[in-house]
Amino acid sequence: MFNLVFALPWLYVATRSIWPLPWDVTAKLAVALVLLIGSQFHYWSKLSSGSVFSPEFPRPVVIAFNWAFGAVVLLAAFQIALDLAHLLAIIVRIGAGGVWVMPRYIAGATAFLLAGFGVSQAARVPRLKDVTVGIANLPEAFDGYTLVQLTDLHISRLFPPAWTQAVVDATNALGVDLIVVTGDVIDGSVANRCAAVAPLRDLAAREGVYLIPGNHEYLSGYDPWMQHLAGLGMRILANAHVALTRSDATLVLAGVTDPSARGAGKPLPDLAAALAGAPVGAPIVLLDHEPSRARQAAERGVALQLSGHTHGGMIVGLDRIVARANGGFVSGRYAVGGMTLYVNNGTGIWPGFALRLGRPSELTRITLRRA
Q1: What percent of the chain has pLDDT over 70?
Q2: Cα-atom radius of gyration of the chain, to the nearest Å?
Q3: 127-370: which CATH topology?
Q4: Of 138, 167, 97, nearest to 361 (Cα)?
Q5: Distances in whole angstroms, Cα of residue 251 to Cα of each of 177, 234, 286
Q6: What is the per-residue pLDDT for 329?
Q7: CA–CA dist 284, 135 (Å, integer)
Q8: How far apart are CA 281 and CA 137, in angstroms?
Q9: How many CB atoms lie within 10 A of CB 108?
C-alpha cells in the first residue's frame, strides 16, 4: 500500500516536473529513476527488516532516503500549485505560453533545499520547551511540581545510541520530579534496538520514570519490549495508575494502552480500569499516546492529559490533515471542557517520514501550578 501511495507523487513529478524540461531524454530518465528509488523508501525498508516501520540501513542512508522521499512529496505539492497557476494564466490569457521552465527549476531547488533542512530538523536533539499548566484542585504540596514528557522517540537507525544518550543527559540535567514517556519509544525488534535504547536506563527523576505503550510498541513486539523497558527501570502504566503523595496530598498519575493493541490481541485502552481505586478528589494526570480520546477523559474528570502520536503534524499545512485524523488535536495546548490537553510534537520522529518544517521536536518540561 505504501509503495502505491508514494508512487503517485513520483509519477506526477516525473510527468509534470521533469519530462517537460528541455533536457536530453537520458538525463530525464536518470533523474526520474533516482527519484523513483527515493519514493519507494518504504519498500526498501520492508526488504531490509520485514517491516516498513523499521529501516535497517546505516544512518546516512536513512537520512538520504528521507531527503529524496521528502523532496518528491514536496515537489509534487509545488508542481500541483504551479499547474494550477498555469491553468489560471491560460484562463486570464496572461503569461500562459511555453513550458514555464524557470518556475520548474525554482520549485525543484526549493523542494530539495526544504527537504534537506526538514530532515536535519527532524534528526537533531530536541530543544527544551517549558509549559506551565494550571490545575484548579491541585494540592498546595504539588504547586510547582515538575515533570518531563518524552514521547515518540522512535529510537531506530535514525536515532542511534549517541542521540539517545544526549536526550537522557539533557533530561536529567533538568532535575525534575517525574519523567513520563508517552509511547512510541522504538522502531524495530529488541535484538536490533537493544544498544540504542540502553542509555534510557540512566533516566532519573525524584519520583521515577513511567511509561505507556504507543502504537509502534505493538508493531515491534509488545511483550518483549515491555519486559525490556521495565528492565531499564521504567514503570509501565497499561490501564493502571499510581498515587503520588506529598505529606497528606495526592496526585494521581494514570496511563492507558493504545488502540493498536487490538491487532496484537492485547487489552484495549480502558480509562475506567486505569482509574479504578484511585483516591477520590485527587487531581488526575493521564498519559494517553493518542490525543483523540481527550473529550472522554475530560468527562471522567481528568485534569491534564499528555499525548503525542501526531509529531505535531510535521509540516505546516500538513498538520491540518493530521489534526482531522486525531479528533482535531495536533500540537500544543488545548482546553477540553475543564481539562488541559497537551499534545507534544515529539522528542524524535518516525524514520519513515523524518521531516519537520515549522513543527520542531521538543524536550518538554511541564510545571504544575494551582489555578
Answers
A1: 98
A2: 23
A3: Purple Acid Phosphatase; chain A, domain 2 (3.60.21)
A4: 167
A5: 12, 19, 11
A6: 98
A7: 10
A8: 8
A9: 20
